[in-house]
Design goal:
heterodimer; A: alpha/beta; D-Maltodextrin-Binding Protein, domain 2; 10 strands; about 45% helix; B: mainly alpha; 2 strands
Chain lengths: ~300, ~500
Amino acid sequence: MLKRLFGTALAATIIAFPAMAEYPEKDIELIVPYGAGGGTDTAARLIQPHLEAILGQNLIITNMPGAGGTVGATNFAKSNADGYTLAFLPAGTAVYQPNLRDVAYDENSFAPICMTINDPVGVSVGPDSPIGSLDDLIAAAKADTISAGTASPGSIPHVGAVLLERAYGVKLKNVPLENSAKISTAVLGGHVDMTADLVGNAIKFGLKPLAVLADERLDSLPDVPTIDELGGPPIRLSIWFALYAPAGTPQTIVDKLSESCEAATSQSAYQDSVMDANRSPHFMGSADLSDFFQQEFQRTADLFMEIGLKK
Amino acid sequence: MLAHLPDALSLTFSWNVLIALLAGSIVGVVVGVLPGLGSALGMVMVLPITFALEPAAAIAVLVSVYACSIYGGSVSAILINVPGTPQSAATIMDGYPMAQQGKAALALGWATMGSFVGGMTSLVLLVLVAPELARLSLNFGPIEIFALILFAMTTIAWVSRGSMVKGVLASLIGVFLGFFGPDEMTGQLRFDFDIFALSGGFALVPVLIGVFAISEILMQAACMKDASVPMVTAGGFKLAPWREWRARWATILRSSGIGCFIGILPGTGATAASFIAYADAKRRSPRSANFGRGEPEGVLASETANNAVSGGAMIPMLALGIPGDGVVAIMMGALTIHGIVPGVFLFHDQPTLVTSIFVLFFLANIMILVVGAAGAGLYAKLLRAPISLLMPAVALLSFVGAYAARANPFDFTVAIVMGVVGFLLRLNGFPLAPIVIGFILGAPLERALRQGLILTDQDFLAFANRPIAAFLFALTALVLIQPYIKAAFRRQKGGTK
């Protein structure tokens, strides 16, 4: 009896092992919690073909939009941790939303695989604005009310505006528009005075960027100073996109995916396509990303507590 | 632009590109005709395929899916009283009555030519004045958008045949459905009752599927006399004689203009455009009394306008990088992945490519005529199927469409519940179109109002200080009091006789 049981277990191990080693052996579903064509979807589709080539399986993108990405992320958090359901989430969905309101996932629901894109945020005004520098902007905000194009509370442009307000002791008139395209339209048309949004959008829409909220100047905008160079407070803000598996996914699978992701993101074809889209390629593997994710989660929780947004 | 035409043509006229164009047109018409699938889904379906193609072929697929899917929606609107896409919701009001009168072939002819002319007019604008028009759209901030949507809301009055009170009530159902889900300005969830499925709010397609398709199926089941008889007998494709077209040229022009204009501006979209054009045609037409009873002009207005939106919406997308509607947003994402980044520099940096987009859009509109005429015979065959076979097939496809919109099983429930609601409303003589108008315009109207109030420090009267907004307010008032003025004039005339 015992012998037979042992035999079965041994056989099972032998069968199971090659199966593990051969992951992935079928199509993988990739949940994107925003609609097709948007910033998150585009970022996912830029990496998709390169990952498919390396993994040797199809990555089937399912767009599951709604409620700041939380509909897709919640469905994802409930899915099987077998490596065949992954998600591509922006920082807003993975880190901001769980700190803003009650959702069915938290910092322990996901196994971070890799970061693929990290888009820095910049402070911009309209191309015809009389404001020519960050100092001008702050002076204008001190002299009179100026308006900032943002999105809902806890969105990147909103957090950016709040961080500027706190650092410089000014008050901005917060106009929540729905998305980056609408914000940029409003800045271009002079309906609002400034915005703190993705630098890529400023380039694409022809806004006048005054400062980038990153460590270094950007290759795409070599003439625009960092906020540190301007003697400003060390504000750092970016939207990063990462691939996740549900928590509990076997470490071998997470590692395999992370390695594949590293190989995919290091290809020059991938990097060129990302930069052509005015985005910033940035790789971070599973181990580093897990630490970074936890840090960001805590940092966001602290920030939202301070500015009264914490749920 | 002309200087780059030879290069653009050589880029366009290769077998790969032309085959891509044909394939895209067929996919477009199919997703258009099938209820619930629609332009957005068609675009998402072909998206992965385009990555394997060269940029010109990829653009060919995308623009042909876009143009032909908008057209395709009219076919099911006319033949089975179910709009194939949201954009064709206004077409059923006259298209289906025409089909019931045995004039389905004629109605398809009007819709096909209308779609073609609308698309072509918008292309002309796109080619000639895209950068200028795109800049015009920047003048529309929240306050102007509020005034525009308010104007669009007046169309409820014109599509509410029979009881005006019932029309307004139906539109309020639509507005109310739009309240569900996150408030985009504060991030707060509304009416979610702590039920997770409600936290994303309602999507347009499942609501539309329920209100139109499921309720139609229930209606057929309830009122069926003989299930073996086809619903609409005559099929095919027929163009009306030239004098009938000439009598309606003003509608063609005006609907094209309305479609382009709405397409260029953010915040309203093709569905609203077709309703606005329909209302406008009804208001002005000498055949006004026939509207809703099978007047070709109703089909013409709606279908011309919704296809005119396609070129209009591409104007700010190509010239500014700002998508005019959801479908164009998907196209923009696809272009971006191909390394073509729409934005202020595209016309300057890649003029040949932009020109080839125009050429392909031109060809895609020609394809509307080709697949429209070629497909008509096929629809006629399909419609020979008895209702007992046709309606279950429509039901199945409708559920596929409702689910596919956002891969959310909750949307089955939405479609079924809205189907029952739509059925009950129909039985009690409520018009259904206002539900859609309320749903698509309610939430943007509220947002624009609140954004505008923030900008003016909560001073609503200050809205009128903006010239564009003031003009649109005046237009809204004029449109609303026009019937009373007309009636007063008529009384006066009657009195002097």
